[in-house]
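Notebook, student rotation project (T.W.).
Task set for the rotation: take a protein with a known small-molecule partner, predict the structure of the complex, and write up what can be learned from the model alone. Partner molecule chosen: zinc ion. Sequence and SMILES entered below by T.W., checked by me.
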Amino acid sequence: MEIEAWWLILVPLVFGLGWLSARVDIKHILADSKLLPRQYFEGLNHLLNERTDKAVEVFVDVARHHSETIELQFALGHLFRRKGEIERAIRMHQKLLARPELKGAEKQTAQYELALDFMKAGLFDRAEELFARLDDTDLSRAARRHLLDIYQQEKEWKQAISTAQQLRDTSHTYQHEIAEFYCELASQAITRSQPAEAQQYLQQALGEHRKCVRANLLLGDLALAEGRAEEAIATWLKIESQDHRFLPFAAPKLLDAYDRLGRAEEGTNLLKGFLNSYPYLDMLDLVYERIARQNGVETASDYLSEQLRLNPSLPGYAKLLEARAITAPVERKADIEGLRKVILENSRSQAMYHCAACGFKARQYFWHCPACSEWESFLPARGQLKP
Ligand SMILES: [Zn+2]
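Predicted structure of the complex:
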């Protein structure tokens, strides 16, 4: 194959151009890096070595002498907020916002950052106002998420509902959160003695999320308070198919309703039936107390012992020992009581409610975790070895 002569000239020319363009790039980078003040790298070094205070000192100095470095001012503001120096962060972002040359996305970012400062300082009204102004911008979604947090902290449930509805998409439907917000509205209406309004909210909760157990618990309460015990029972029985882990919450209510109808035994038998499928300790406790009242402690203890053989649990055995101590001969009482105390001491955490999201433990059940703000993250069953 014959190669034409001009091709031979073209090859070194291409290489030459490549070399030249690389030189131009390197020169450009070197020129850029010379523009950065030396202290900038000093600050970066402190930051990388986790000497935040030193880094801040250096960066503040750089920012003072190079006011054109807007990104640096943003980074500093962020750093102040993270360090808990909220007032300094607020001043920095307010100064940035006051700059007339700040326009478009940079202005919105400054507003967003200032709103975060206010939020961290607990100045929710001012944060809310700034976040709301970011509607129809690239930051609107992030701002709405913070607004949702604010409305929840301030118990502004109606605004929380509309914000969550705006945020909902295929990855997060906010169904169970919105249903919980309706339940909160219903609880407020119940406190104000407005049962009809509460009922409406609870129906809306179920419309949003048909598995909302809390709505049925409250609907049953409303029905029982108005003397409709049969309706209350039917409502609470729905919980079995919604989420049977919440049956221990419905159990004492069901027994109360059956008692009011004069059908106490039917109530006890219903719970015994549930226990065959769902051996929740709180429910077992209730049945034990009922049997002890109706048939004596001995029969109740035998029932408890049989159930614990099938589903052992430490708090359950502590309860059994308490029962056995009642009927035991005097000389054995002290030993049994001692053993019961040791078991209780070692199973204390099992007798508490746990948040499945963050591990927070509490004696009281929370629908909204006070530690991580998740909804319905507390496990309703306690003391189970096998849930
Ligand atoms: Zn939690």
